[in-house]
Amino acid sequence: MKIVHCSDIHFGTEDPAIVRALESRIAEIEPDLIVASGDFTMAGRAREFAGASSLLRRLGEATGSPIVATPGNHDLPVYNLLARFVRPLGRYRRWMGAVSQRAFVDERVAVLSLNSARPWDFSLNWSNGRLSTKQILEADRFFAASADVPFRALVVHHPFHVPEALPGFRRIGRCDEMLDVLARRRVHAVLSGHLHLREVIARDMDIEADRWTVRLVQAGTATSVRERDGSERNSFNLLRVGRPGGLGAETDGVPTVAIEPQVWDGERFVVGDAAAGASG
Predict the structure, then answer these.
(1) pLDDT at 31 over 60
(2) CATH of segment(s) 2-279
(3) Contact present, 155 and 70 (Cβ < 8 Å)
(4) Which of 69, 119, 128, 193 is the most buried (most CB within 10 A)?
(5) In whole angstroms, what is the distance from residue 105 CA to residue 110 CA?
(6) CA 237 → CA 85, 198, 224, 269, 272, distances in Å?
(7) CB 40 within 8 A of CB 72
(8) What pLDDT was estimated at residue 240?
(9) Distance between CA atoms of residues 180 and 186, nearest Å
(10) How far is it, in rounded angstroms, from Cα 227 to Cα 221?
């Protein structure tokens, strides 16, 4: 099974050439599922949502794939404070709700997205994200109900791990509580964005007398010119779930997962070096 994971397309700062290349490459891949982990816009403007919604619609039509999406902090109104507090997800639901869904389950995969973006924060940095107790319980119920599905993943915008090289960022709120649930429910991966940095961390968790590994998969920015430090190229991830030559096959009850970065080389997206974005 092939899952495309993209994030932080940031319409309003998108490069049209990269958008076209993204569409072309995803159509070539022919994924079974597309996951988009937030920040579709730069400032939550209607015209930005219109562009992002059009892109997702075209991707869905070109591939026939369902699309699971979640908002990011940039998808809340930036300049309209009344809307930010009264209807923070109004535009997101209008534009992105028509072309995506919050969850997807079939005989091969169970994916749940949760909104980690908040209109305000106790700190001065309102871009930070957190999860609520209600959302943690929702994840617990969802993955308990899908325990027999071979591959299970959670989608959020904010990261469960922040590299030391990015001191201005912090992990998603209630991170450890959610990780406990994910390990207990044998969830294989967390797909997230926000950092504009591609990275894969293997988080080993002790569950009673057992041990479970949750992969923390970060996607870079797919189409925005807002690169983190100029060295991180635009990219998205391709997850191949199952054995080579037998997609969907399992080994000892755990599916194999290969993560292939798709990196912009100035003209097109090409397969990048997986080791360059992996650690832990």
Answers:
(1) yes
(2) 3.60.21.10
(3) yes
(4) 193
(5) 4
(6) 33, 8, 15, 11, 10
(7) yes
(8) 96
(9) 10
(10) 7
264 has pLDDT over 80? yes
Per-residue 3-state assignment (H helix, E strand, C coil) for 71-121 = CCHHHCCCCCHHHHHHCCCHHHHHHCCCCCECEEECCCEEEEECCCECCCC
The β-bridge relationship of strands 269-271 and 257-264 is antiparallel
Distance (Å, whole) CA 30 – CA 22:
12
pLDDT tens-digit map of 121-133: 767 667 899 999 9
> Taking the domains of the chain in order of start, what are their residue ranges?
2-279
**pLDDT score recorded for residue 16:** 96
Average pLDDT over residues 216-220: 97
Query: What are the backbone angles phi and psi of residue 148, rounded to the nearest 5°?
Result: -90, -5
Which tokens hold the place of 35? 């996951």
DSSP state of 276: G
Beta-strand (E) ranges in the chain?
Answer: 2-6, 33-36, 67-69, 103-105, 109-113, 151-155, 189-192, 199-207, 210-218, 235-243, 246-247, 250-251, 254-255, 257-264, 269-271, 278-279
pTM of the full structure: 0.91
Per-residue confidence band for 253, with pLDDT thresholds at 50, 70 and 90? low
In sequence order, the β-bridge partners of residue 137 are: none
